[in-house]
Write a structure and sequence with these properties.
2 domains, 3-stranded antiparallel beta sheet, Dna Ligase, domain 1, DNA-binding, 3-stranded mixed beta sheet, alpha+beta, Arc Repressor Mutant, subunit A, homodimer, binds zinc ion, binds manganese (II) ion, 6 helices
DNA sequence: ATGCAAATGCGAACCATTCGCATCAGAGGA
DNA sequence: TCCTCTGATGCGAATGGTTCGCATTTGCAT
C-alpha cells in the first residue's frame, strides 16, 4: 500500500487538485482486492465517516479515469449493468473469472510480453497495454456441478 | 458466413424456439465486423424491413447470451455506457483497439493456448475461454500525434 | 388441427449515470 | 497570511439504456 502523500503527488502530477475525497477514493480502490462499483465506493466512504455525495463519487472516478489513475472494467461482473473501477497498478493485472460464483481472482504473471512486441512490429501499432480476462469454473464450483 | 439453417439448428440445440427475429439477429451479429449495441441491431432490423420492438431485441440478445450464442462486452468501446454484443465465434477473437480513433481490429492468432493449460493445472480451474484486448495507437493515429 | 409454453409488442417503470447551478475549497500570487 | 480565481462539491432533477407487466401472438409437439 502506498502512503497518502503518494496519492497526493499523483493527483498533482496529473493536474488534479488534491482533495480529501480524491485521496480517500484512491486509498479505497488501492486497498480493494476486487474492482468496485461507484456505489460501493460511496458506501465505504460513508463507513469511514467521510461525507460525500454520490455524484461526486462519479465525478471523481471519471477524472481519475481520464488521468489513468484508475481503470474501468469492460466486462459485466454479476450480470448487472453498472461499471466497475479498479486502482491502476502500472503492472497491469489479469483476471480469472469464475462463471459459476462470479468470483474474480487476480493473476500475477503476464504471458504476453513477447507477444506484444511481435505484434507491434507486425501491425505497426504502438502498444500501450492490454486486458486479459480468463473464464472458467473454480474448484468449488466444479464440485457443485456434480 | 453460416447459412440460416445453421442458426436455426443452433437455436434448437440450445432449447430456444427458432423465430425470424432470432435468426435475423444472429445473422446481423455474425456479419458485423464490430460489436453492436442493442439499438444498432434494432435499426439494422428496421433497414431490413423486419418489424420488431426494441424490448424484443433486448430480450433476444439476453437469451442468446444465456445460451452462449453471443457475448457481451459491457461499456468500453466509445466511453458511453451501453452494452455491446458480438457473435460468438467458437474460435474466439482478440481485439486490437486504437486509443486514438477507437477503431477495433480483430487479431486472428491466439497466443494463449499453452498458457491456459498451464493455468488449469496450476489453479485447479476448468478454463472455458478468454478475452484479450490490446490497446495502442494505429499507424494513422501515430502520424496524427506529431 | 389443437393446446400450451414460449415469444413478442407496447408502454411504463427502473436505476445507474449525468447535468445544472449555487456554493465551497485548494493552490498560487500579492 | 490574505485574496482571488478556477476547479471541486452538494443537491436535486433529468437522462437514457435496460428491464418489466401484461395482453396477444406464435412456434412446435401431440
Ligand atoms: Mn499482461
Ligand atoms: Mn486467445
Ligand atoms: Zn466459482
Ligand atoms: Zn487509430
Amino acid at each position: 500500500m502506498q502512503k497518502r502523500t503518494d496519492h497526493e503527488a499523483a493527483l498533482r502530477r496529473s493536474g488534479l487538485k488534491s482533495t480529501k475525497h480524491r485521496t480517500a477514493i484512491l486509498d479505497i480502490l488501492e486497498q480493494s482486492d476486487q474492482p468496485m462499483a461507484a456505489e460501493q465506493v460511496y458506501l465505504e466512504l460513508g463507513d469511514q465517516k467521510i461525507g460525500v455525495s454520490l455524484s461526486t463519487v462519479y465525478r471523481v472516478l471519471e477524472s481519475l479515469l481520464d488521468k489513468n489513475l484508475v481503470t474501468k472494467l469492460s466486462m459485466s461482473i454479476s450480470g448487472d449493468n453498472r461499471a466497475y473501477f479498479e486502482y491502476n497498478r502500472k503492472s497491469h493485472r489479469h483476471y480469472l473469472v469464475c462463471l459459476g460464483c462470479k468470483k474474480i481472482k487476480a493473476i500475477e504473471h503476464c504471458p504476453l510480453k513477447n507477444y506484444e512486441e511481435a505484434l507491434e512490429r507486425e501491425m505497426n501499432y504502438t502498444i500501450e497495454g492490454h486486458k486479459l480476462d480468463i473464464y472458467g469454473y473454480c474448484p468449488a464450483c466444479q464440485e457443485h456441478e456434480k
